[in-house]
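Title: Comparing notes on inverse folding

I've been comparing how different people in this forum approach sequence design from structure. To keep things fair, I'm posting one structure and asking everyone to reply with a full sequence. Here's the target:
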């Protein structure tokens, strides 16, 4: 029989949200482990967008300068309708009041940055899949049983295991529900990629993104370091088989598949004017079906909490999926600190004093977290859903193209700033953490 490990916080899922929470727990001296079912650290995706509402806590953790060095700020956006340019939007001016720009960074690099901040292999257990969990209020620990027969006991379990969350399905099954995730295929497919540096681009093109609205699809390119391009094409799918509708990431996506859908489209950064020039510089390409939440569950039940896509999957329009997972992790870390720790000065800085046995108090702390974050997540998911309709020109009564042109071609930059205050202006951080603790978090 394998020995039973114990920890204060057990995080299921080693994605952006799970690793952010682990890094925050490390800063707070709260013991934690992360269970990741993959056999190696292989984040899915091409690039990632980090907005001001997520960057402040990453700055607090000492990760911002690395993001600045390895990422690229979004300074300007060129907006086209087919091959006609509508305008150039000064995005740096839009985001200036929020203290941080929007950064694009290679997902693999950012994921490894968080992995290191979470103390890497000392915290993250690879090739560990959850089979079941038992939360008995009469017991001190939640018991998590793994598929390999091992068991880990934790005072709190956090499901950060993505859109098809095993943690969430287990909780649903135990509640007498059917144990399925309540996500819906939107009918849209995203094709994305991350390119090598575009040799035909120069200094004037650094920090410039492109939004292109075609008759049958949309295309976005985000600027990345050294004039690399992270592109995302969005197309409505007329019909898919049941198997295709149930999958997220497509298997064996190739540049040829992307070119078949978008290769002949106009792009201002393409050397010949055709988007194929950019796709052919891709270092990786990915295709995925787009899902969204249709029935938001509570984000906690007993001593089990959910964060990120496990609780509130949303469309990737406006790039808030990872940012909301980071917001969740920050709020939850503060809640866990409230329960687990009291601050005291000492030679080793902040000390963690576990409050064992206070099960009811912990349940209430997690319930409060659920209430706060559910309201925010629902609002952002609704915004993302409505923004997708405007961006793709799919509004009732045929108004989509007109509304889209009014917003994208004519709305002044101050209007964008005003409209994003509620989103970018909300910047959660760790609370009541001595500076000496945060200084340890700086990674060169």
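Reply #1:
Here's my take.
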């Amino acid at each position: 029989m394998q020995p039973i490990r114990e920890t204060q916080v057990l995080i299921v899922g080693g994605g952006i949200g799970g690793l952010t929470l682990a890094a925050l727990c490390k800063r707070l001296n709260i013991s934690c482990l992360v269970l990741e079912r993959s056999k190696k650290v292989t984040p899915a995706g091409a690039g990632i967008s980090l907005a001001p509402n997520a960057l402040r806590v990453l700055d607090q953790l000492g990760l911002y300068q690395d993001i600045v060095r390895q990422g690229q700020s979004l300074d300007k956006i060129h907006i086209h309708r087919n091959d006609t340019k509508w305008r150039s939007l000064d995005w740096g001016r839009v985001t200036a009041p929020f203290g941080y720009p929007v950064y694009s960074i290679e997902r693999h690099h950012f994921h490894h940055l968080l992995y290191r901040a979470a103390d890497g292999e000392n915290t993250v257990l690879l090739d560990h899949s959850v089979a079941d969990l038992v939360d008995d209020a009469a017991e001190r620990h939640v018991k998590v049983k793994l598929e390999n027969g091992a068991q880990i006991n934790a005072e709190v379990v956090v499901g950060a295991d993505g859109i098809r969350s095993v943690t969430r399905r287990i909780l649903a099954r135990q509640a007498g529900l059917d144990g399925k995730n309540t996500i819906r295929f939107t009918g849209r497919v995203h094709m994305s990629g991350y390119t090598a540096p575009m040799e035909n681009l120069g200094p004037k093109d650094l920090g410039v993104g492109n939004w292109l609205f075609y008759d049958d699809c949309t295309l976005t390119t985000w600027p990345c370091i050294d004039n690399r391009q992270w592109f995302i094409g969005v197309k409505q799918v007329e019909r898919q088989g049941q198997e295709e509708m149930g999958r997220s990431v497509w298997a064996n996506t190739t540049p040829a598949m992307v070119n078949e859908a978008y290769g002949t489209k106009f792009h201002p950064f393409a050397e010949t004017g055709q988007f194929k020039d950019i796709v052919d510089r891709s270092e990786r390409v990915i295709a995925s079906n787009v899902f969204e939440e249709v029935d938001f569950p509570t984000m906690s039940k007993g001593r089990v909490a959910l964060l990120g896509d496990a609780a509130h999957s949303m469309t990737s329009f406006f790039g808030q999926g990872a940012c909301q997972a980071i917001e969740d992790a920050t709020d939850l870390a503060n809640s866990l600190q409230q329960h687990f720790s009291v601050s005291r000065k000492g030679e080793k800085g902040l000390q963690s004093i576990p409050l064992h046995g206070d099960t009811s108090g912990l349940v209430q702390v997690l319930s409060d977290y659920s209430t706060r974050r559910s309201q925010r997540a629902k609002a952002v998911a609704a915004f993302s859903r409505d923004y997708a309709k405007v961006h793709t020109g799919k509004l009732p009564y045929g108004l989509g193209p007109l509304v889209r042109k009014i917003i994208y071609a004519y709305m002044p930059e101050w209007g964008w700033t005003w409209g994003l205050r509620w989103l970018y202006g909300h910047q959660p951080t760790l609370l009541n953490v001595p500076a000496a603790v945060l200084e340890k978090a700086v990674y060169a």
